[in-house]
Amino acid sequence: MSVGYNISAVGIGMAGVMDVNRKVALYSPNIKFVKNFNFNQLFGKKTKIALANDAKCFALAEAKLGQGKNYNSVVGVILGTGVGSGLILDGKIYAGRHYGAGEVGRMLYDGKHTFEVLFQKARDAHNNKQLSQIVGVLLGDICRVLDPDIVVLGGGSALDKERKFVDGAKIICSRMLSSYRIKPRIVVSKLKNAGAIGAALLIS
Q: Hey, which of 11, 157, 167, 182 has its CA 20 to 30 A from 24?
């Protein structure tokens, strides 16, 4: 794997649940064989390893080099295979005590179904109106709780110009927040390979 190279450090970003202290990927929804996968065993103890889930890596890249570069509080939201997010405060990932902060896709939309499940159904049905509603409510909830300086959207669905649901989502979000005097700045990512860049930025 490292023939001809001396690898001193590796930054890893992937979808799923990570134990960042033990350098173990506990579970990944996209890579089914990953279960309690220990990266120390793969790279060896001499290699510095940093890992985070893909949404947190995306948010970190946006905060450091992308649309959130000049802001103190940045939320990155990935709308792709699933729904995930990361929160960056003063240039650092806020992961929470159990590294569970940012799992917005698992929040309930209507008391029964998660945002992620409903998003996936609307995405697969190419229902832009429903996507606008679901994502708009999600963004409103995020902004009501966190009131960040900026929210950056990424992922295949958000970047797909044919879907055209982002503008509608912004309108719904603004309506939700009108009585709270919160006027969020919501933009779409322009940074290519943000997830990979964020993984590299984990190494400090």
A: 157
